[in-house]
Amino acid sequence: MMIDLESPIFGKTAEVITYIKTFLYGIFLFLDIDVNIVKILAIIMAVDTVLGIIKAIRLKQKVSFKKLVWGMITKVSVLIVPMILALVAKALSFDFTWFVNAVLNILVLAEAFSSISNIISIKEGKQIENQDFITKLLHTIRIGLSNMINRLFNTINPEDKN
Question: How many CB atoms lie within 10 A of CB 121?
Fold first, then answer.
């Protein structure tokens, strides 16, 4: 079976993908997010996903479509975190560019670490424990934002320490 690149379905799909890419590039440009880091992160996330599937097959674990979809949704949702931080910075007129780029770089390192752990698991044929740096990062960001909001409230109303 050959893929007909001139078929109406393929043409519409390519058009939709182009619109989505243009929309995302516009968002990244508006938020001053380095598109190259996002591209690298997306590639490493895709590689990690493939390596995770290979690892599951090698370790004779159940590979399910549901687990794959949830894994991909989780990875995409992690990409939203830097965008949320950049939006908060824009709304508050802060320059969080360095922080957003730092978060993206940490996400790249965490995904690379996960990929390497998957490669070791594949090679050795046993489960290698993978530390969840992304969850640690998310908790740290949450605590940092909470502290920022509490300081703001304490500045506005110093008598109310709740």
Answer: 21
Reading phi first (left if > 0) and then psi (alpha if -120 to 50, else beta), residue 151 is in alpha
Please give the structure tokens belonging to residue 43: 């590639």
CA distance 65 to 70: 9
Cβ neighbors of 113 (< 8 A, separation 6 or more) are 130, 131, 133
Q: Tens digits of per-residue pLDDT, 67-111? A: 888 888 888 888 888 888 888 888 888 888 888 888 889 889 999
Amino acid at 124: E
Rounded to an integer, what distance in angstroms lies between the CA atom of residue 116 and that of residue 122?
10
Q: Say if pTM beats, i.e. exceeds, 0.90.
A: no
CA-CA distance, 114 to 159, in Å (whole number)? 47
